[in-house]
Amino acid sequence: MATRSSSNILVHVLLRLMAALFMYRPSLKKYLKGTQGWINFSVGVRTETGSVEQAILFENGKVRVLPYIPPGTSVTLIFASDDDIKEMLRVPPNEVLNMLMKNRLRLDGNLGYVQLFNFFVSLLMSGKHQKMMDKQRKADVAERKKAACNMDPGLRREMAIRRSKRLKAKERDPGVKCLDDPYLPEYRLEDFPRLAEFLEIHHTVKPEICHERPALLTDWFIKNGFETDGEGKPWNPELRQGAALRYLMENRKPIIRKNDLIAGTTTTKEIGVVIYPDSHGTMIWGELKSVPGRTLNAYTISDESIASLHHHIFPYWTHRNFREWVRDNYAKPLSQILDERFAVYFLWKTASLSHTILDFPKVLALGMKGIIEEIRKEHTACGAADGEKKNTLQAMILCLEGVNAYAKNLSRQALEDSLKETDPVRRKELARLHEICAGVPENPATTLDEAVNAIWIVWVALHMENTNAGLSIGRLDQWLQPFFEADMAKLATDEARRDYVKRAVELVGCFYMKCTDHLPLVPDIGNYLFGGSSSDQAITLGGVRPDGGDAVCDMTYVCLKVTEILGIRDPNVNARFHPGVNSDAYLKRLCEVNYITAATPSMHNDKAVLASLEELHYAPEDARDWAATGCVEPTISGKHMGHTNCMMMNMVAALEMALNNGRHPLMKWDVGPKTGSVENGNFRTFDDFFNAFTTQFNFLIENAIELNNMLGKSHGELRPTPLLSSLLDGCITSGKDATKGGAKYNSSGAACIGLADVTDSLMAIKKLVFDEKKVAFADLKRAIDTNFSSDPALHAMVTKRVPLFGSGNDEALGMASRIAEFTHDRFFDHVNYRGGRYTAGFWSMSNHVAFGTLTGALPSGRLAGKPFTPGLTPQPHASKNLLDNIRDVSRLNPHHMNNNMAFNVKVVPGADDTHEEAIDHIYSYAKTYFDLGGMQMQFNVVTSDMLRDAMANPEYYRNLLVRISGYNAYFVTLNRDMQMELIERAEYGI
Amino acid sequence: MTKNPLILDIKGNSLDDGPGIRTVIFFKGCPLDCVWCQNPESKRTVAEIAFDAKECIGCGRCLEVCPEGALSRENPFYIDRDACTLCFTCVEECPARALDRVGREMTVEDIVKAVVRDRPFFNTSGGGVTLSGGEPTLFPDFVSSLLQALKGERIHTIIETCGQFRPDTFESLMLPYLDAVYFDIKLMDARLHREYCGVSNETIVENFVRLKLLCAGRKVVLLPRVPLITGITERESNLAAIALFLKEQGAPRVQLLPYNPLWHDKTDKIGAANSLRQNAAMTTWLDKKRIEACREIFTRQGIEVV
């Protein structure tokens, strides 16, 4: 037995104190009991060396402390050292998360129980924690103000000035049938008081945790069983989920928001945070008390919600979630341990797999009724041996019936509301909603307002089944255009048509605002990993039709108008531009909207994306129907289960492991293969070292894929998705759920992070160590290990004397291509649990910042803890000339990026530029980039000064939109590291 | 002259040197000697060595390698330019690029190769190449070949000139391959011109008058440009005289270039004298109201300020 330290006594005393308080103080003791009985679990605390070892056991209302950790302990907190334990006792809970991320504390066992333990700690400490956090926040605010004290207040008017001017279209696209000027320059936000009001709510109302979904589902599962049904027979998972969803849809509260033109809500709150305890919901358990007071993205929570979540909901789900299912069924695999150390990769399947796009045209054309009919036919054709298929089909029908039931409830609610309504205009609107919801989505839609409401109701239902992370809407302009045209054709006068166009803008605006009625649950650690992200409900505009013709139409421009006047982060608007097919006027409008909103839409080169998809052998007409999912990733609309953000892979971790012979420096763990030691001179050529890098990278890829496949299985068992499946081509005919490979097309997509950092680091090694022999590899390694403090001259040399990716240097570009090709090939070699290939993309959400904080200094000269570049964007100092960046990125081969990429460009309009000149410049960059074959491009049209002012004075910038890497966020909601990363991005005057 | 001129820099993505996205080629060497010169490193035709104190990390490698012992931390300009033989050994060695060579010999082919990469951007934006300096017209044969090569690549060309050139060579060797001439007019008074710019303005004024006539026939844009130098060229009397002159010449447009004080550090880098540094007016930007008043002097004469 290891020698115990004085900290051991301290921990023992504290745990004993905790035990006594929970045993004998009734106000605390009540928390030991759930609706299903006592909540039993145990937590161990120890250090890596064994200098501390204690355990606390909660058992049948009793609490005991043991001086050792017994086998079967639910979870153990393992600290790097005694000092780390002492620090944890001193710091607020958000700092503890930082310790966890930085691997000064690791966990072994069920993470839900850590959260429960944290919740118990917060019951004792919440007052003290809140004071600590308030103090921290005050210090933070003071520091921000100090950092930006001399900013010109005129900066705060800049965005309003941009919004005040608008271009007129110089031409009309062939697909524009009704709009006179497709840019719709006559409309401003002020013309739509309803939208302005919703926008005000969006920016001012604090989101609230809503327990409606998990409470109803938990009720149902407690009554009907989860693993086995009432009669003790094993449940068919699809059938179980179908029946539960129908119950949820029938019983959830039908709400029509005040003044809304669209009926239904995802939660019972004005802006709700949906809880999915079957995925990552229990991760908020520890914060139920503290979440209203946390610094970043705080939520309101009612006592009722706390009670329901703690006593009723969470205890039921501690083992029935994806993460714990894998831990329990695969006996803590290495691949999962790596994931939970945060530094090398992150798998999204612990939260969701719904990064996909459903067949909305089918919803609108057939209605639930038509789809149910189709399923019934398939069901009837089943033979006696097709039991599984029948169950799956039956489950789909249950779900679709649930959707109909919810629509009926909404219809009834609209009627009730209309009877109570005193304003005649609103009464008419409610009466119309009563009518609409009585018809759709059960029946085919016939008008634009029916179509929009039908999509929304199905959207709500999908979010009751699946976690709100990246589920995407797809080609909204294409889905709605037929209804717009049909409505227009019925109108007789110009005036009526003008009014209708305005109404269409308002209706689509309401739809966008509806998408903001819910937020994903972000535990505080998520604020560091994925700051500011919303659900990322991607909408995609423009491009080509399945037949290859120009898809830009009236509704493309209506959607762009809405994007412009709202300027909101979610829906995440993406635009396809097909060189040679789509017009320059359309591209110019995209640039204008980017200029006015500062950050949206992101733009894609249709040709390059289609080229990247060739190897997946989609039928050409299907491929042309691609749309962005979540951030930027291509999904074949309505036919493709592509979980396109299944993992975020830190490529730089592989480089660090190669430099350290398989050891990861932050984790202090010799986990990778032994690929050679720099210090011992094992690398004789550059290729020797390149191979070491690829070997380590391959090791990480193999592990991440193994875990993704395990998590995929867990979805099939715990939460198959019959509703989603019923709207994906292939699932009905195959009778297989989408989680099990039922869709017509299958794949899994990775986001690979740090391409520019790895490229530049390898260039530094190649040029200085091997080609020019200016520095010994071991000396470079020593400098890296000291964060270059031992050798500033070497730091200057690697940052200034090595040609970088984005500088226009062919060799650096070749290096980036070589790495991208390897990445693509390794992923593509693997077949996932649904029989599809793995695709690779180079975009980063916000993880270039988070992974950066967990990474030491690099051969490229990037210092320890600093962010990587976003997506595959070149380093800010790669070149003073933006054209070099644009050219290099455009020359990367799309075939190596079949899960797309994110290229960030920060441009700053000149002080004297007119509205038109500024847009012309942005247009020239985008157009040339696409002409050269560049694949994706996204702008931030802001100055660093403006961002600094916003950091110090967030009250003036609540709606300042920025593009991170693939998604949009409000700058003021980001953590400090992410704010600094945006400020320090290269800035090019236009 | 067989030797190629020295090039200071090829700057891509310029948005202020003519229409569209442009690539600007800076030549080294100028016949004028303006006291406010914004690019003091472009005055002399020969190569120089620059030292940027802000970039220096103090590693001392240059001190070790200099064969002449011309570098010293005690020297405020770091380099003893009398002792320096311009061997550039220190430049090669400096890891931080704090020491740099000013002016590199390039061939026409080198320049065209560097510029042609930007052609897709010229095409989408209506941009092209701008020759600047220094004074490109100092090198008529070279510039002529360069312009012909650029025209061979169908690239839009502009020259920025101080106007001090031999009209016959300019007209025969350069003008035929130019789309626009940006012609600086600094001071109308010949005496003041000599005082501030080192030479009289007679040739410049004559060249402008000639060029005005020639350009009209050739569809070449001739754009007069006036730098607004605080207390020197921006004085009311000077601007009024220029405006009157332009009106007489029938020039429809003028561009005003407001003074910016960012150049002071550049004189330190190349160890050049700088008598204006102590002058408070010369270390601040020209204020917006003053710029507006300057514009008005021209608009009053019916000349559009672009």
Give your account of this protein's structure.
The complex is a heterodimer of chains A (990) and B (306). Chain A is of the alpha/beta class and 990 residues long. Chain A is built from 36 helices and 27 strands. In chain A, β1 and β2 form a beta hairpin. The model of chain A has no long low-confidence stretch (mean pLDDT 95). By secondary structure, chain B is of the alpha/beta class. Chain B has 2 domains: 6-46 and 105-305, Aldolase class I (TIM Barrel, Alpha-Beta Barrel); 48-102, Alpha-Beta Plaits, CATH 3.30.70.20. Helix content of chain B is 34%, strand content 19%. Chain B is built from 11 helices and 11 strands. In chain B, strands 5-1-2-6-7-8-9-10-11 form a 9-stranded mixed beta sheet. In chain B, α3 runs parallel beside α5 (140-152). Chain B is globular, with a radius of gyration of 20 Å. The two termini of chain B are 38 Å apart. In chain B, 40% of the residues are buried. The chains are: A alpha/beta (990), B alpha/beta (306). Chain A binds chain B through residues 792-794, 796-797, 800-801, 808, 881-884, 887, 910, 920-921, 923-925, 927-928, 931-932, 988-990, and chain B through 11-13, 15-16, 20-21, 57, 59, 61, 95-97, 117-118, 120-121, 123-125, 127.
Instruction: Tell me the radius of gyration of chain A.
Output: 28 Å
Mean pLDDT reading of chain B: 93
Count of alpha/pi helices of chain B = 11
Oligomeric state of the chains present here: heterodimer
Shape call of chain A? globular
The name CATH uses for the topology of the largest domain in chain B is: TIM Barrel
Which structural category fits the helices and strands of chain B? alpha/beta
Count interface residues per chain for the largest interface.
A-B, 26 and 21 residues
Q: Superfamily at the CATH H level of the largest domain in chain B?
A: Aldolase class I
Query: Could you give the count of β-strands of chain A?
Result: 27
Kindly give the count of domains of chain B: 2
